[in-house]
Amino acid sequence: MINFDMLHQHYFLTMGPLLVVTATAFVVMILEFLLRRRAQAWLTGIAMLGVAVALAVAIAHFYAQPQLTLNTMVIDAIGSVFSVLILITTLLILWFTLDYSRRHHVAGEHTYLLLFAVVGALAMATAIDLITLYVGLELLSVASYVLVAVRTRSARSVEGGLKYLLMGSIGSAVLLYGMTFIYGISGYTNLVQIGMDATSLWASYPAVVALSFVLMLAGMGVKLALVPFHMWAPDAYDGAPSPVSAFLATLAKTAAFVMLLRVMLFLFNAVASNLFSWFGVLAAVTMIVGNLIALPQRNMKRLLAFSSVAQAGYVMVPFALFGATPYTDWYALFDSIAFYLFAYTFMTVGAFAVVEIVSRERGTVDADALIGLYRRSPWLAAALSVFVLSLAGMPLTAGFVGKVYIFTTAIHARGVWLAVILFATSVVSFYYYLGWLRRVFQRPAAEGAPADAGEGAAAQAAGAAAVQVVGAAAAPDVAPAPAPARQAAIHSLIAVCALATLVLGIVPASLLHPLALQRWF
Amino acid sequence: MAAHAWLVPLLPLVAYVFLLVLGRRAPEWLVAGVSTALTFISFLLSLGVFRDAGQPATYTFPWLHVGSYTLEAGIQVTRLNALMLVVVSAVSTLVLLFSKGYMHGDERFAVFYQYLNLFVFSMLALVIAPNLLQLYIFWEMVGLCSYLLVGFWFFKPEAALAAKKSFIVTRIGDAGLFAGIIMLFLASGSFDVTTVLQAAANHQLHLGWISNDGLLVLTAILVFVGAVGKSAQFPLHVWLPDAMEGPTPVSALIHAATMVAAGVYLVARMYPLFAASQAALTTVAWIGGFTALLAALIALTQRDIKRVIAYSTISQLGYMMLGLGVGAYAAGVFHLFTHAFFKALLFLAAGSLIHALGTQDLFEMGGLRRKMPVTFWTFLAGALSLSGIFPFAGFWSKDDILAGALRHGHPALYAIGLVTAFCTAYYIFRAFFLAFAGPARDAEKHARAHEGGWVMTVPLVILGILATIAGFFNSPLNGYGLGKFLTPDLSLYQTGLGGYMAPERADVTVMLISVLVGLAGIALAAALYARPAAVDRIASEGKAEDIGPLYRLSYRKFYFDEIYYAVVVAPGKFIAAVVDGFDRYVVDGLVHLVRRIVYLAGLCLKYTQTGQVQAYGTVAAVALVVIIAIAMIRAGGVF
User: Fold this and answer.
1) Are residues A237 and A369 in the same domain?
2) Residue A340: what are its φ and ψ, rounded to 5°?
3) A267 with A290, same domain?
4) What ipTM was assigned to the predicted interfaces of this complex?
5) A402-457, pLDDT tens digit by residue?
6) What are the chain B neighbours of A292 within 8 Å (beta carbons)?
7) Residue where one domain finishes, among candidates A250, A271, A292
8) CA-CA-CA-CA torsion for A457, A463, A465, A468, nearest 10 degrees?
9) How many CB pairs under 8 A join A and B?
10) Which residue of B has its CA nearest to A298?
11) pLDDT, tens digit, for every residue of A183-234?
């Protein structure tokens, strides 16, 4: 006789957030059928409520003892920390959607697809079975393909979605292929069981293990947009609605990182530690190419896409160090990965939100839309400066602390060459990030001209400026300038992101302290 | 109560943020009202903290993990810190109130209050910092606020220059302090003040390349260099008189009562470190004594009322250093305490004069006794206190220092102190008589003169009362209460600091000599400037006609500015020009070259992004094949 109550608690401990989000997703799906019209904001609100509950559950179980359910789902430090991050990110993205759906038509599927994607992401964070992990990944991926292509009237959206689908499918296939080798030589799909036999298996089949590792790495590389598997990213980010772009850049990456972390550590640690140098190679290539290719970009969303490619390269650096570091020093690696992903999430979502407002107001995603932002809205200019400086890694921002942490761990673990590349490419990245800031604080050409021109020319220029202003006002706008009150959602989102970026930058212990209390393994 | 001490600096910060949000168009009454009210609450809280101060109470939280070391942030309440909280918040409240009248109508009134609040926050946070790093951060922040406020009227070229000068000169000291802090950290493994002092007192500071005793002297001197910069001691005293270009309330708050006293506070805070090496203490004493005399000599002939008081500040800070240096710890801190009140009073009274007349030149004043009675009486109280006349506050604290110098066996320093006391009484009463006695030298200005509103007179009166009675906190009449209160801070550290206790009974002879010397100075000033017969002589001095070489030497401040320009600034400019050329043509050239190459690489890579998904797939597939091939070779073949 099974003690039902025990069973219940057990399930809820390991899968609580996952169950809550799943239930919310179904509720939202059904309500969407029932309500249909003009209920997008309500649906998003319900979704946010559900995710908030899930987040509360995840936080309540933050320091729970490791526990296993059905040999498949687990609660442990990796699962807890990244579940919390995934759910926080979901809240931010839904918040973003709340604003977006007021101004643009959003497909009804948008909200619950997002929630199902989150279910997949949570599974990736908490499963320890290759099959379950793969199913989680596919749930996330398939939902993302649809989310990118959801604006069926926009050619770029469909194009981006299709490219993402094609490349993503290749990635999934390669990943699955890599997993089959492991299953082939061990006979298990469960990471714990494989881990127990690992030493003998790896000694007998070094080539198969290496092949499997490389294939899985390449498969995950596509999902993470690591160079040279990154090329879908700019098209998908550019084509997708802004909240979805932010979703791809943050939540999808976080989930892929945690899955990679778990699989690689369970399967390939210690015995196959030399394989971890491949992470270093990919990290180096990703940092170099991602930053260089971003230099000539003028499209803001594409630039953020390349920037997120480069940022993923930074996060890959600690992965490369697992092989060369004794277990006792792994805490720093876990902490640095988690801290950077937290920091990255806030600054990236914030940057996407500012870009969304700016491009909406100016009707273009070209970086020149930023010119004069400081004069139009000092607040947005300040917020964008925080995000951009954090992405570039200036002190007093979260990005700086994250980078320094990765940098010092790299030095400590004798990964000096990676640290040098991290530093050098960060310097390169200043060029394009500061290019944005230069535009933000630059005077618009029309305003600067009258000041130093002659009297007649001044009158002419003033006239021209007036014409421009009138013209701009009269031009048929896609979305008429909304009242400030209706902008509250996105402005508060930006404020929260900016605040988090600054708090993590000024008092990093606010996150590092809880992380330090986690027993990572 | 100590646990709530963090509220004390927080309230001015709240005021700062509030004003920041309010913007610069906010009405004056709201700006001044909120600032004064919040700082006043801070003051009340400080009183509570002071009442309950006993054993050091430390409250910290982890701020930053660096490797295995955890940096902490928080507060520490010792007896000294609690006293400083009271002094700073009291003077701040009064100056914030006074500024309402003084800055009335200024275009950037709200900005002025923002800066002042930021300063008050930084200063209060500085005095309760539990570790050296936090102390250094706020040390720099008060420097920054000082820079902003000295240059507040930045459209005046002198103000902009003075702000720059004050910032750069104090930076020299800050560099020394920072080096000292780093060395103390390396030697003790901690930034925590208590830990560092404990290690210093037990002679446990240790670095590989220097002997333990040498290390003590070196770190103490480096910390003292920071104090020399902040407290404008010789040879870094040149910035303080120029800083008088700032609005007068700023001079009262920052450049008299609080920030410049931070150097003295630092020496007092780190006293066990200094006490552990006799050489360091002697240095402190002699630098202090020399500065006291030097500044007093310069003050004899200045004609700008604020400069007279500024040099007097330098001189009095020298006294405090002298007191600390000879081992009269409590006397030094006590003088800081009384000086904060009477010097803030003198500055505010001077501010009241400047506000009324629109000039700072003593030779354009005169005859204001009847027109500005409140200013007259309060200035008199401040001047008597500064001159060390019984029973005003300055008498008790100055006498304490002089007696301390004698008691600890420094007769030479005692003599210097006595000469300085004579000069002090002379120059402050010279200013007093020039301003208030005799006929009006500028009839037009005199006609316009009037007393400021209650916001200006009330702080004057309160400070006047304090300048009169503050001395009784540590007089023989209450058994040297303040000294008894303060010294337990030191007895935590076991280095025979018993010798630094306050005296048990008063030395009446020393007191009598001090008062007589002060009275002699006043008498000389009265003879030269207050007699009706002196009018002609004053007029010729006002026109700077036929003055002797000694007078000129003092008036030109011993040519320190000129010497520094020739020795430091001019060579510095030359080196800067050379480096600038190198930077412009060699470094920049290289940077541009690298930038070109990097940008070109980015451009090339951009063309790989064709937009064709077939190409994406091909790149990925080829890369995968290459990776597999390399991995297989490294694994030693497929089979």
Assistant:
1) no
2) -65, -40
3) no
4) 0.84
5) 999 999 888 888 888 999 999 999 988 988 898 898 888 887 765 444 444 344 44
6) 598, 601-602, 605
7) A271
8) -140
9) 102
10) B606
11) 998 888 998 888 888 788 888 888 888 898 899 999 999 999 998 898 899 9
